[in-house]
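User: Can you model how pyridoxal-5'-phosphate sits in this protein?
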Amino acid sequence: MIKNKISVTKSSMPPFEEYCDEIKDLWESHWLTNSGVKHKELESRLREFLNVPCVSLYTNGHLALENAISAFKLSGEVITTPFTFASTTNAIVRNGLKPVFCDIKESDYTIDESKIVDLITEKTTAIIPVHVYGNVCNVEKIQNIAKQFNLKVIYDAAHAFAVEYKNMGIANYGDASMFSFHATKVFNTIEGGAVCYRDKNLYETFESQKNFGLRPNGDILVAGGNAKMNEFQAAMGLCNLRHVFEEIKKRESVYNRYVERLNGIYGIYLNLTERDVKSNYAYFPVRFSNYKYNRDKVFELLMENDIVARKYFSPATNEFYYINQAHLHNQETPVAKKVSNEILCLPMYADLSMEDVDRICDIILG
Ligand SMILES: *Cc1c(COP(=O)(O)O)cnc(C)c1O
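Assistant: Here's the modeled complex, given as structure tokens:
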């Protein structure tokens, strides 16, 4: 029997007719970008959906994060996690800031809040943690530290769309949070992203920063770039948002099947949902530590069967070539190093069938 190739993810798409319907008015208006009707509607829908006071849309999550960092006019050092996608660390460096790497917890892979205070110097201006895999950072402790030392907190919430903590939208914590709406994320606008924040006065700043620094009166006050979300992206978002709960529900079934098959096996560590957290089941990371196969072996066994898993994140970002060249590998982060050598994200998407999950688990369990 010929078996299908299984990818690590598969982008969610609305029914074709629904998208065609959504973009039809654009052929009337010929208004394709620069805060058109779709853009405005998606912004307001997301404010409601994410349960946050302010949302600014972007053409991708990375530029949303870069702009969120620059909006707070930070300087000097920023404490962050090395266990993340390149985007987080690059956004800090591209803002002319020095990333100071704090180790993570082996339990949920988020920044180890007990190690933050020791890294604070007189140059520290912010903490940039990541809700990695949708796992919620210790937002309360991080808030307390930030308050005590007068630091800003900007969350990379790229993985955490629709995640709630204690019945609150995750983006209500910290000074700002960035979401990614990239094709591979739980909710997508093809490419896209957003910054969520509480201070309404920042809206004009973000509008201007993503549009060459233009103010409504035509003045250019800062050297802004171009990071606007266009109407076709926003239209995709409006369609996908209507289906996102169904999508998450299906992901939950995939999650449950994986857990049923893999939980409690010696040497296999799962990323289980936590109390007080409403999960979005964005990823299914598994850690192989003293299992009969190591991570690389499992990766190869799956590959031989046309199943693509992803070594996400490997290496940790403080191992990057440019970080070493610039002598920015400033802290040893042994837990992040260990986890990055042991972690493997298994295929996870709404339409992954139970048969395919079983096939994947059969290979892993050998
Ligand atoms: C996807 C991702 C980003 C960047 O988002 P894009 O929309 O692809 O630019 C940033 N941080 C993390 C952790 C991500 O996974």
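A couple of observations from the model: Residues 211 and 315 are 34 Å apart (CA to CA). The first helix runs from residue 16 to 23.
User: Helpful, thanks.
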